[in-house]
Amino acid sequence: MENFTNHAITNQAGTADLPQPAPTLAPGEVVAGLRVLVAQMGDVTPLTPAQRKTLRSQARASNPVLQASINVIGVLDGVAQALGLPAAEVRQLQEDANRWTAVEDEIRALLNGVTSANLVRRQRLALIATQAAGIGKLLARNPDNAVLVPHVQELKRLKSYARRKKTAVVPPEEPASQDAGTPGGDQT
Q1: Residue 151: CB partners within 8 Å, gap ≥ 6?
Q2: Which residues does the chain have with pLDDT short of 50?
Q3: Does the reported pTM lie above 0.70?
Q4: For the chain, the helix, strand and coil percentages under 3-state DSSP, each to the nearest 5
Q5: Which residues does 185 contact at the CB level (< 8 Å), separation at least 6?
Q6: What is the largest CA-CA distance in the chain?
Q7: For residues 98 and 89, what is the distance between their CA atoms, to the nearest angstrom?
Q8: Can you tell me the distance from the alpha carbon of 90 to that of 70, in angstroms, rounded to the nearest whole number?
Q9: CA distances from residue 93 to 88, 89, 96 in whole angstroms, order as listed
Q10: pLDDT digits (tens, 9 = 90+) for 91-127
């Protein structure tokens, strides 16, 4: 127990040097900021799932293979001339790709955090709604709270509608052919 207390005190003293978080942004401000950021990045081109799949299959070279290939470009000027790219430019492209991978990881972590926080909000909202419906239902029993009756009835109607199972559309069956039981048709 003593270590925990000392650790907590140390952490509190150590956090004074860390930058404090900025005030919470509204969702609209975050969206506007992201749009500005995307516009500044310039090289953000959305791809279709098929395009991403094709590019992933074409970009499966390991780092050692990539490095050896770049070395081939650097060894002979004829290779660089044939490609139209010097080895230094290809190395820069590789470095950029590696750095943007770190950006991908950060954005995925951000998306996971935003998604998780919104899921918690929705769960909290669902709990509040359930509690409000239950309290309203109880209070509507009292004639003094008659104003709640139409709201409670509407909730009941909406819940019963949501619980109904949707009827599945069953495609009509094709009539069975007479020779379906015998392979190759009628063998009489």
Answers
A1: 136, 140
A2: 1-13, 185, 188
A3: no
A4: 70, 0, 30
A5: 179
A6: 96
A7: 14
A8: 7
A9: 9, 6, 5
A10: 999 999 889 999 999 999 999 999 999 999 999 999 9
